[in-house]
Amino acid sequence: MTATVDNKRTAGFKSRWAAMPKQVRWAAIAALVVLLYILPNKWFYEYLGFPIGSDYFAFYTTRSDFAGVLFDTAVFVLLAVGLNVVVGFAGLLDLGYFGFYALGAYTVALLTSPESRFGTNWPWLAAVPLAVMVTMVSGVILGGPTLRLRGDYLAIVTLGFAEMIRLYAARNEGILQGQRGIPGIPHPPGSGTDGKPLFGVVDARPYYWLMLTLILVVLLLIRNLANSRVGRAWVAIREDEDAAEIMGVPTFKYKLWAFAIGAAVAGLTGAVFAGKQTFINSDQFVLESSILVLAAVILGGAGNIKGAIVGGAVTWYLPEWLRGIGDLLGVEFDAAEYRILVFGLVVIVMMIFRPQGLVPNRRRAAEFADRRKEAVPQETVPNE
User: Fold this and answer.
1) How far is it, in rounded angstroms, from Cα 18 to Cα 149?
2) What is the mean pLDDT of residues 178-201?
3) CA-CA distance, 292 to 44, in Å (whole number)?
4) Nearest to 359 by CA among 291, 315, 309
5) Where exactly are the structural domains of the chain?
6) Which of 133, 86, 37 is nearest to 293 (CA)?
7) Phi-psi region of 128 (alpha: psi -120 to 50; beta: other; left: phi over 0)
């Protein structure tokens, strides 16, 4: 009953949104984008919140730099959007997605850092396109022999790929320099009105603005793909690969496209992350991160771009916000120790009561509704 009510509300909101004039919809989207761009400014976010008694219950983080948290959240959102192409659109179970993220970061580090064993010292901006290309080619190389597998078998292969990269990165004698890592990665180029470098160590806002701009560009490209013949082929493969192949859809080609596009988005994200951190090592690319990105896609609603955005934002931001909940409520309680536990409980509750996700794909929501009807025992009519 609850799921039916939620579906009706979602359908009602979508119908009202579609009925609005195009100018109103564009104005609302533009206002949201402007809000996201000014959000990391302290003068703005400190005055947003809800007063509770004498305390101030704010949505921003109190024990972490808010702009830095927003950047990390944007990184996670972009990763979720890229993985949604593979898992949500094409229906491929990928547990090694973070391997492409690491590959993009290490490519930039090896090409730009004076401490790398390549000694190339490329500018950061020149290394980013090559990092995207390397990850895309890696996706094709990995997907070529493995995308004929399905389900758990494909998940195991992709998991092995991510672990191979992590284990090699942990070797001190390798070119990735193990735990010592690769320091001295240059920042993105650019300077402010005062002539000082725009991208530095202290202020995380320019990195957030850069990542937000990349998110908007990637969203536009993926949205156009999803509404094209490629997107319809992905949906056909996700729903029933055998039926799609019988109907003439070259399933292997479109699955390879999804794999390569998802890998390129992950590589781009890793390249920006490396430029912000200026230092990377193997500890930053653990298996748990791949699983967390997959959880973000499923939590938000697999197969829906808006769902991937919401899922990625909630998955990363909620635990960080819980770090300072004790300060916000005025009690002596360090919630940072329990933030992952609380987030895990939220995910469990969500999967029980709303398995289709926070912003579900229309087809997936209909599938879950049909399954729920099948699970309810039907009344039998006695034979007359």
Assistant:
1) 40
2) 83
3) 30
4) 309
5) 77-187+198-285, 287-359
6) 86
7) alpha
* Amino acid occupying residue 247: M
Q: Read off φ and ψ for residue 280, nearest 5 degrees.
A: -140, 150
In whole angstroms, what is the distance from residue 328 CA to residue 319 CA?
15
Could you tell me if 212 and 36 are in contact, meaning their C-beta atoms sit under 8 angstroms apart?
Answer: yes
The answer to whether the CB of 276 falls within 8 A of the CB of 284 is no
Tokens standing for 225? 């793909």
Band (pLDDT 50/70/90 cuts) for residue 384 is very low
- Residues above pLDDT 90, as percent of the chain: 27
Among 20-34, 43-57, 356-370, the range scoring the smallest mean pLDDT is 43-57
In sequence order, what are the residues at sequence separation of 6 or more whose Cβ sits closer than 8 angstroms to the Cβ of residue 149? 157
DSSP 286-344: -HHHHHHHHHHHHHH-TT-HHHHHHHHHHHHHHHHHGGGHHHHHTSS--GGGGHHHHHH
CA distance 304 to 50: 30
Q: Write out the two tokens for 327.
A: 């300060």
Residues composing the chain: 384
Question: 173 to each of 170, 180, 278, how far by Cα in Å?
Answer: 9, 10, 21
Mean pLDDT of the chain: 81
Residue 12's pLDDT is 58
Give the residue with greater pLDDT, 23 vs 276. Answer: 276
Q: Tell me the pLDDT band of 50, cut-offs 50, 70 and 90.
A: very low
Q: Is 178 left (phi over 0), alpha (psi -120 to 50) or beta?
A: left
